[in-house]
From TrEMBL:
Residues in Core-binding (CB) domain copies: 1-116
Origin superkingdom: Bacteria
Keyword set includes DNA-binding: yes
InterPro entries listed in its UniProt record: CB (IPR044068), DNA_brk_join_enz (IPR011010), Integrase-like_cat_sf (IPR013762), Integrase_catalytic (IPR002104), Tyrosine_recombinase_XerCD (IPR050090)
Family named by the database record: Belongs to the 'phage' integrase family.
UniProt domain Tyr recombinase: residue ranges: 72-280
Alphabetized PANTHER family for the sequence: INTEGRASE_RECOMBINASE PROTEIN MJ0367-RELATED, PHAGE INTEGRASE-RELATED
Protein keywords: DNA recombination, DNA-binding
Protein name: Tyrosine-type recombinase/integrase
Amino acid sequence: MDEWSASLTGEKHLAPSTIRSYQGDVQQFTKFLIDGRYGWGPTCEDAFGTHPVAICHEWNTIAHLNDYEGDPEARPFTREELQRFLDYADDQVERAVKSKRKGALAAYRDATLFKVIYGWGLRRTETSKLDVVDFGRNAKARQFGRYGTLNVRYGKAKKGQPPRRRNVLSVMDWAVDAVQDYVENVRPRFGCEDHPALWVTERRGRVKPSEINARFVAYRDALKLPKELVPHSIRHSYVTHLTEDGVDRRFIQQQVGHECDSSTAIYTHVSDDFMNTALSKALAPAFAGT
């Protein structure tokens, strides 16, 4: 049990929540084996000369102590880093067009995909499973047309439960413009009119999360950005930048689908400039008369 748990951490680099889930499955199975109501003890004694015992204990399993268990090294993009990343993604489209080589459509799709991750604060898997019809109108934001709200149907699920759905309201007009241009002018050129997926491939399939990750890593490394930046960092950036812009914390929590405010809090890494500005505002009343 100890060696197996260590391999999940050291060799496979799994998240604590994933390891705890695996350990919980083993724990439930061993409880079933040693429960006298099922008769496995005597059966094993007769067949093997020994009996099953519990192997999962408090000292060799991971306890659920925190609301958030993500990688502490993961951080959001700074605004400058994010702008460089999105500009580079756009540049790949122009390079493919000028060189008259294949890949221009895929590059345009991926540039838009990253903008949607940031524009609506999505996870990678949520993004890959979006359909065209998931966008809808918001009566309170008519300026966005049919892209005023996004129905996320495959949100992160709790253990043993189906994916959680949520509606994310559009707040960034430039992101709306980008996805509208992609849907109306670029996606039809893939020849997948009957395919429901928002992100389609040249082979008429749905873009997979692993493909999103591969493209992200290629762009990040080409720009020599820090390795700590991962696809999920774009979602972190959504929370951080909206916080810096003064958006209500509860609204952000609902947008990203967090039940606990503590989960949203761990996503918030506001910049030094923001902290200094906030400090100045907090101290202003005290020094107003000096």
